[in-house]
Amino acid sequence: MLPSTAINGPFFRVPAIFASIHTVVAAESTRHGGVSQWPFASLNLGINTADDPAHVDENRRRFFDALGVDPDRFASSHQVHGTEVLTVTGPGRYEGYDALITNEPNTFLGVTVADCVPILVYDQENQAVAAIHAGWRGTVGGIVVKTLEAMQTAFGTKGSTCYAYVGTCIDETAFEVGPEVAEQFAAEFKRIDPYTEKIYINLKSANTKPLVDFGIPTAQISISTFSTVLNNDDYYSFRAEKGQTGRMLAVIGLRS
Fold this sequence. Notes:
Blueprint: E1 6-8, E2 12-15, H1 16-19, E3 24-29, H2 53-67, E4 74-78, E5 85-87, E6 92-95, E7 99-102, E8 108-113, E9 117-123, E10 128-134, H3 136-140, H4 143-155, E11 162-166, E12 176-177, H5 179-182, E13 190-192, E14 199-201, H6 203-213, E15 221-223, E16 248-254
Parallel strand pairs: 4-6, 4-8, 5-7, 11-15
Antiparallel strand pairs: 1-2, 2-3, 3-16, 7-10, 8-16, 9-10, 9-11, 12-14, 13-14
GO molecular function, one term: copper ion binding
Family: Belongs to the purine nucleoside phosphorylase YfiH/LACC1 family.
Protein name: Purine nucleoside phosphorylase
C-alpha cells in the first residue's frame, strides 16, 4: 500500500493517492487556520457542535476557498453512526446517512470526523466517488462493503479501477474498548495488552480489509499515518478532548 504522505495546504492535507489525479478534488482538513476559540480552536468545520455558528461558517468559507470548491456544490449528511448509503444527485444537506456516493461532476461529498474513520474512494473507470464515515458501529456493520456494493449497482464500479484513502482517526494504541465491543471485531483487528488485559481495536485495518476484499489493489490504497489522539495538536479527537472539540471534514469530488 502507498504511504499516506500528503501535500500540505493551509487548512488541509491532500492524500498522496489522489494528488496526481487532476480531475479529483480530495482533502482532509486539519484543525489549523480557523477563527474558532478554545475548545474548538481553530478550524472547526462541524455544524453540530456547540461552537459559535458564525465561526463555523467562516471556517468553512476559508476551507472551501482554499480547496477551490464552491460551498454551494457541497453535499453532506447528518451522520448517525449507521450504514445507510445515499446516491447523491446534487448538493445539499441530508439526514441519516453515513456514506455518500455520486458520479455527478462538481458535486463534492464530505463527512465530518473527530476519531471515526473517513474513507474516500474514486472509481477511475466510471468516474464516481464516495465519502464514508466509519465509527466502530459502522465498521462492524459493514459500511465500506455496503458503499462499494452501492457504487457497483449504481455505476458499475469494480475494485481494480478504484483508488481509496483510509483517513486519520483514533489509532490502535488509543482505541480501548470493552469486551462487548471487542467481541464484534475479528481477532486480526484486536490487540490485548498482556499486562493490563485491556483491549484495543485497529479501525484503520478493519476498514482497509473490505477495500482489499472488493478487489482494490493494495498499491491503490493509501492509509493515513496520522492519529487524532497522538497528533491531537493537528487533529480533533472526541475521546482525547472528552467530547469538547471540533470536527474535521474529509471531502472528495470530481471537477468537470
